[in-house]
Amino acid sequence: MKKLILSVGVMSLSIFAYAQKSEVAEAKKSWDLFQAMNQAQDLQKNLAGLNKGLTHTDAAIAHEKTKNAVEPWSYRASMASAIALLDTTSEANSIAKQKIAEEAILKTEELDKKGEHKDAMANAKINIANAIQARGIRAYNKKDYATAFKIFTEITEKNPTDTSMYLNAGVAAKQAQNYAGAVKNFKKVVELNGPDAKNLLLEAINIELVNLKDTTAGLATIEQALKKFPDDPDFVGTQTDIYIVRGEIEKSQESLGKLIAKDPNKAIYHFLLGETYYKQALSVQNERQKLDPKKVKEYNALTAKMTALIDKSLPFYKKAYDLDPKATHTLEALKQIYAFKNDTKSYEEAKKLLDALQKQ
Fold it and tell me: Which residues of 136-172 are buried (b: 16+ CB within 10 A; e: fewer)?
């Protein structure tokens, strides 16, 4: 949270009729007293003092002779924003004082032709931003994620470049099961070049695939991710899995073929190409398991199809191993294939290598 700034510059008072001048002077006195105490006393006394000062500004801005004077509006903005930030006991009062402060800031900026109250208004805006953020954090800690999302979204609307608040909004939205809201905010962080872009894109893709069950949206996000992280194996691998699930094997193999042509020494691409065949084989195996055992001809046909797919995967896994002998996922795949083929010697070799890697 940004540092709390509650100070204001020296504000000169115009000459008004005594009664009106008194209201402004009393408002200034309340504000100066609050600053002098530096919030050392308890919350209720601070709030009482600020509310007293705010009452004096009520009278000043209501009077014909002082309603367009900049000083009472400036004090009003400072005190109301301070109350909005400090009052953690009443959300309703904090929000009400925030609205008063926002109105007063606009009026002060309209009247302050010389910019003498610029710093005070900047401080009041910081108080408001911190007040809203504090309410969002309190809501989140209370597990009121929907409210937290609403509050963090309010901050992003006031400051559309604040990546941390988009991230907060995304996390709160996910917790509230507002998955579309989570994806939107995570992508906004990436769009604004915020930190941890890759993981946020992976999270957005996972939400689209798992929670929203929207493979089309997931593929679109992967395409977006690959523009920022060209040929990244995590995104390529997820893309491959989606194509396989959707039965669009040729698209996956075409994409991986282009990547291998571009970088033939990248083991992960060969591994993923092997996966396009092996996962098809697993799908055929599942189909075979559901078959009536009496249907021998159909069973044998599915077995032959499964074996052919496994045989096609094997050269790619071997190539991946040659390029990266320490990749456990490749050895695991090879071990499974050799087990299926009853190739005991190769199975034992793969198992031995895998066990050795896992002990490192």
Answer: bbebbeeebbebbbbbbbebbeeeeebbebbbbbbbb
